[in-house]
Every structure is written in C-alpha cells, then in structure tokens.
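Collaborator request, handled under Task 6.
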Amino acid sequence: MNSFIVYWHPEPRSFNAALLRTAVETLAGSGHSVNTSDLHAMRFDPVSGRHNFKRVKDPGYFKQQIEGYAKRLRTLADEAPIEVGLH
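Structure tokens returned to the collaborator:
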C-alpha cells in the first residue's frame, strides 16, 4: 500500500509531530510505502492567485478555473509543481 501524509505544524516536538512520526513508523514497519508532505517546512501558502503561474492564458483577466492548462504547459510557479507531481 502507498500512503501519503500531509502534515503542518510549526513545532517539531508537538503532539501532531509525534502522531506523524508514529504513523510513518507504523506504516513503514508494516511494509507500506510512505510519502509525507510537510507544508510548514515547504512554507506552503494556501492562498492561490496569479503568483502561482509563470504566465496565464489571458493576462488581462485572471480566471483560475481556466488555468488548468498550466500543469500540461509547465507554467506553474516554481513552488507549485512539487505538490502536483511535476518535480
């Protein structure tokens, strides 16, 4: 089984961090593949906008719904591809 754990907490000694470590150790110890995404370490910004794109389809009118072509054309900002599988 493949597992992907998304995690965010600013304190590495927090209860949340302990839960993450326990989950990773338990899953990996059972032979599962475990990938994690530490959003705090990545300085993840959950607010999307023009800054997520190197260029947009219509520079005069930003409409995020039509920017789906950005993944295919690789026009996402350098930070964005990590979480959409383009790294």
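The cover message to the collaborator said: "The helical segments are 15-29, 69-73. The chain has a mean pLDDT of 83. Please let us know whether this matches your experimental observations."
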